[in-house]
Amino acid sequence: MKVKVFVDGQEGTTGLKIHHYLSKIPHLDLLSIEPDKRKDQDARRTLMNEADLVFLCLPDAASKDSVSLISNNRTRIIDASTAFRTNSNWTYGLPELHGDQRNKIRNSTRVSVPGCHATGFILAMQPLVAEGILPKDYPATCFALTGYSGGGKKLIAEYESSNRDQLQAPRHYAFNLHHKHLPEMQLYSGLSFAPLFTPIVGNYYQGDAVTVPLVTRMFTRQITAKDVHERLASYYQDERFVRVIPYDSEAYLEDGFFNLMECNDTNNLDLFVFGHKDEVVLVSRFDNLGKGASGAAIQNMNIMLGFDEGLGLVLQE
């Protein structure tokens, strides 16, 4: 018997991508809603309670409303919004977080997909905090350069329908220092304080690089950038979608320049370590629509349903 799946909000950027992934998986029965009933609460309630698993690809408030429509204890939910990421009643959908996280996801009925920037930051930092290399009160900073698809339909339309000169250059944002990913970045990295985070949007469609600079004089013990690389490589050595790039990474650069879009159209995340004995730079490279959103949602679904973890997560045509 096929698993019944419904995507609430499938017309958005994340929802469309999830639907594309799902269409390649034969074990599923995709429930659909008529276009004119997408905001019809009764129609959505019927489909969500019929489904075995529901993806929510909605703004935070709408996601909370959708959860309230499910009146049974059987339907499982994967939410792509920020609404439940630090809610203790929900499981954080980052399988690589630590050894028991997959088991938590597998046994959960409520899973929250991590934010894109948070994914890159947490996977870089959490092993170092957990091992005690970084003190919990380390004053972390990071910046992220991402494609405009991460801003959804409105930002996509702005970039693709305007010839304004200022759109040609990267643009910083969230200078109020209250970016919505900060709570999960702090909680799941294990830090006592949120990082000082500066996101930047560039004039390209997809691809994300989260960069975290570190100074070794503030480590709990004397180790070099190469030592940091060895710790991360060991931590992720058995992971399917997280690859720690060899420490001598010049071969992975292009004439010394970083190729931010190398992981596009995959669910992969590449983790780089640069630096020397005094300074370290960590860089997480991934697709903001893949491992940073829709790909992560499908990976969680596969774990929850007992499928192969990589089912449907192949290079997009």
UniProtKB/TrEMBL annotation:
<dbReference type="InterPro" id="IPR010136">
    <property type="entry name" value="AGPR_type-2"/>
</dbReference>
<dbReference type="InterPro" id="IPR000534">
    <property type="entry name" value="Semialdehyde_DH_NAD-bd"/>
</dbReference>
<dbReference type="InterPro" id="IPR050085">
    <property type="entry name" value="AGPR"/>
</dbReference>
<dbReference type="InterPro" id="IPR058924">
    <property type="entry name" value="AGPR_dimerisation_dom"/>
</dbReference>
<dbReference type="InterPro" id="IPR036291">
    <property type="entry name" value="NAD(P)-bd_dom_sf"/>
</dbReference>
<comment type="function">
    <text>Catalyzes the NADPH-dependent reduction of N-acetyl-5-glutamyl phosphate to yield N-acetyl-L-glutamate 5-semialdehyde.</text>
</comment>
<comment type="pathway">
    <text>Amino-acid biosynthesis; L-arginine biosynthesis; N(2)-acetyl-L-ornithine from L-glutamate: step 3/4.</text>
</comment>
<dbReference type="Pfam" id="PF01118">
    <property type="entry name" value="Semialdhyde_dh"/>
</dbReference>
<dbReference type="GO" id="GO:0006526">
    <property type="term" value="P:L-arginine biosynthetic process"/>
</dbReference>
<keyword id="KW-0560">Oxidoreductase</keyword>
<feature type="domain" description="Semialdehyde dehydrogenase NAD-binding">
    <location>
        <begin position="4"/>
        <end position="105"/>
    </location>
</feature>
<keyword id="KW-0521">NADP</keyword>
<keyword id="KW-0055">Arginine biosynthesis</keyword>
<dbReference type="GO" id="GO:0051287">
    <property type="term" value="F:NAD binding"/>
</dbReference>
<dbReference type="GO" id="GO:0005737">
    <property type="term" value="C:cytoplasm"/>
</dbReference>
<feature type="active site">
    <location>
        <position position="116"/>
    </location>
</feature>
<dbReference type="GO" id="GO:0003942">
    <property type="term" value="F:N-acetyl-gamma-glutamyl-phosphate reductase activity"/>
</dbReference>
<protein>
    <recommendedName>
        <fullName>N-acetyl-gamma-glutamyl-phosphate reductase</fullName>
        <ecNumber>1.2.1.38</ecNumber>
    </recommendedName>
</protein>
<keyword id="KW-0028">Amino-acid biosynthesis</keyword>
<keyword id="KW-0963">Cytoplasm</keyword>
<comment type="similarity">
    <text>Belongs to the NAGSA dehydrogenase family. Type 2 subfamily.</text>
</comment>
<dbReference type="Pfam" id="PF22698">
    <property type="entry name" value="Semialdhyde_dhC_1"/>
</dbReference>
